[in-house]
Amino acid sequence: MTMPIDPDLMRDPDQNKRRDLTIAAAAIVVCVVLPFVFPNRYLIGQGVTLFLWVAVVSQWNLVFGVGGIFSLAQLAIFAVGGYSAAMLALYLNVSLWFGMFLGGLVATGFSLIVGLACLRLSGAYVALLTLALATALQVLIITDTTCFMRQGVTCMTFTGGSRGLSRFGDFGFTAMLGRANAPLGNYFLAFAVALAAMLFAYLVIYSPIGLAFRAIRDNKLYSIGRGISSVRFQLLIFGASAFFTGMAGAVFAGHYRAIGANILDTSLLLFLLSMMVIGGLGRFWGPLAGTTALLLFDEAMKELGEWRLAGLGAILLLSVIFMPNGIVGLFRSRPAAR
Amino acid sequence: MTAILECRSVTKSFGALRAVNDITFSVQRNEVLGITGPNGAGKTTLFEVVSGFSRASSGTVHLGGEDITELAPHVICSRGMMRVFQSAAAFDTLTAWQNVYIGHAFSRRHPPLMSLLRITREDRASCLEALERVGLAHRANTRVAELPVLERKFLMIASALVSNPSILMLDEPVGGLTQDEIDQVFDLLTSLRKNGATIVVIEHVMRFMVKIADRVMVMHHGEMIFDGEPGRLARDETVRSIYLGEKEASRIAGAEERKR
Predict the structure, then answer these.
(1) Residues A290, A275: contact at Cβ < 8 Å?
(2) Which residues of B touch A228 (CB under 8 A)?
């Protein structure tokens, strides 16, 4: 009745190391070569945006897709990382290079608190609470009018208020690489963060911890009945997904040499959520596919003005109907039956 | 003989309702205890309390001599009690061996840190062995969403067995199965018992119950109305009138006769 199987042949049907390595190598080569083939400032700037959103969405996918926790706090975590690095640079003269890691740590702490707050909630209630937290954070920043520091004749608030924070410097690529090549510095820094974030996501998704996240998502009670502490693992997801998100926030601040409360806008949140859904929830390549697809689409729609948002809505609608498993789902290999 | 599981005066109240009322029993090593009774008698609630998913209102539960009354359910797993749920629960997006792996990796009392980061060849071999015990080794790489109900039930048992539990708690293992499938479950449980397993099983299907259990407990309105050998069940006046009815009672008595 049973035939012998070699334990080495037992694998994750979603994981195909050769395929993953091939795609990764190709993507890395393209990203490295592209700015030299097309040394165009606009393109390089869009590249930075792509990398930052890939970093954020790949980490969000750990919580939302792999863990099945409908948290909408990811941009708030991103903002906390960016604001922390910017404030450390502005008030304490901490270099952004160092602040980038500190921003990641502060973001992790913030995310753990969000995770704690969500422990007793499930499903849509998590989405409501986290959205409320993100909105509250934005309102707190915008309504901050208390004078914290004088800059010339103007009064600076602690968080920068509705004007945002600026004049905290950047990563210093102009001094390092010269004026012409400075954008390349930001490009490769954002690339490195995206690469690290994706590598981290890969390790998490296919490790025992990733299996535990998926088990909790599939059936929470049963997972507890097999020894998984849902409290410990939920906090682990929230903590783990925050570090690179916060770091990306710091790179964002350094790249634009400014950060404002508009990054907490719901429209941006929904844009990134669409990337995650269209790419393929819970799948490793989903965030990269979705982010690339939506940024390309956004680029194509640029001329259309207000119709851009309508177009985005239409794309989201069509993709949910016709590719319920996202772009990556279209390429899903049939699971090996036996 | 040492008692593996010992419940003393376990009570669970929901407001004024006593879903489980002052139940005392113990399970010896290598014993199969059956729990039965009408719908709403409190059988599953008793399981919930014993396995820590629900806090007892009063009373104590000891597992292998250790007081587990206040422990969280995932901690109770690591102490050696594994539950098999009523529905054919599974982790649908994982493969069969990954389902078993969850029970293998996270039910350990002191898991080495590395075991949370890497799946080793030994881990896979242990999972495969557990799958073999329930006859599902050929399904190791199948995504569980594609398995039929009976195989899902077997898989749930395999993910419990993989941790070598000291006691197995089965909630209606043959509910909704055909006679042929019931026989397959019976064969599996019999082989587990031969290998020294200790089992508590909730079941409505009486013919299955009297065959598999060494001892049967009948619950009604949260109270225990019978505790004894399955052979005495059909002759007990209270059980006949409250639960079985005359027809079923004589059928079981007949089955008992044939067994001897």
Answers:
(1) yes
(2) 74, 102, 106
